[in-house]
Design goal:
Strand 3 and strand 4 form a beta hairpin. The strands form 3 sheets. Strands 3, 4, 7, 9, 12 and 13 form a 6-stranded mixed sheet that branches. This protein has a 4-stranded mixed sheet with strand order 1-8-5-2. Strands 6-10-11 form a 3-stranded antiparallel sheet, with no helix packed on it. The two termini are 30 Å apart. It contains 3 helices and 13 strands. Pfam families: DUF4232. Keywords: Signal. InterPro entries: DUF4232.
């Protein structure tokens, strides 16, 4: 299922509609898991796990059990995000959505990011975001300069009625990602070509990186 997204100027306006909540997640096939729909902290679907890549060499994030006092939620205002390539095999592509806390105080992530592919003009590119349950949501506290990651998995093989003699879907140049339980997106570069199967991307919850 796809959800059209307006041009970049409209992303902020949509944030009012896309207010996130921490519970009551719906199945991956419905709109709560598509594109920039509200990311929540509960997984409701399970697909083939995407193995995480080796931990980054940045300072480690810690979970709430060792982090001390509760922290504020991580927002797009304090996070810097990027998509890092991982393994590729037999038409499958793997990557990690990595976020860094650029703020001066710890912040907390718990759950899934929203994600919408965009072309060079900021127009939406077909995106069908599906949550996986491994790893599922857990509270991750990011000290300043620490990182968290979410696994991404998609196919580059044309599916259904997608063309095989040209790109299966329009190619994205950027992506908009909303941290869990937030409404304002980060803008990320996308250098991975078209995403086939209608823009289907499987995403895990954030974990300490």
């Amino acid at each position: 299922m796809r959800r059209p997204l307006a041009a970049t100027a409209a992303v902020g306006a949509l944030a009012v509609v896309l207010s996130a909540c921490g519970g009551g997640a719906r199945p991956a096939a419905n709109e709560s898991s598509i594109g920039l729909a509200p990311p929540s902290s509960d997984a409701t679907t399970s697909v083939a796990p995407v193995p995480p890549s080796s931990p980054a060499t940045q300072p480690s994030a810690t979970d709430q059990a060792t982090a001390g006092p509760a922290s504020n939620r991580c927002t797009a205002a304090v996070l810097a995000g990027e998509v890092r390539p991982a393994d590729a095999a037999a038409g499958n592509r793997y990557a990690k959505l990595v976020v860094t806390n650029n703020g001066t105080t710890p912040c907390t992530l718990n759950g899934y990011s929203g994600l919408q592919l965009l072309d060079a003009a900021g127009q939406p590119v077909p995106t069908d975001l599906e949550r996986e349950a491994d790893p599922g949501p857990s509270r991750v506290v990011l000290p300043p300069k620490a990182q968290a990651a979410a696994n991404l998995h998609w196919t580059v093989v044309a599916t259904g009625d997608e063309p095989v003699e040209r790109p299966c879907e329009p190619e994205a140049a950027r992506a908009a990602a909303i941290p869990p339980d937030e409404t304002q997106p980060m803008t990320l570069d996308w250098h991975f070509g078209p995403v086939c199967a209608g823009g289907r991307i499987v995403i895990s919850a954030f974990y300490a990186a």
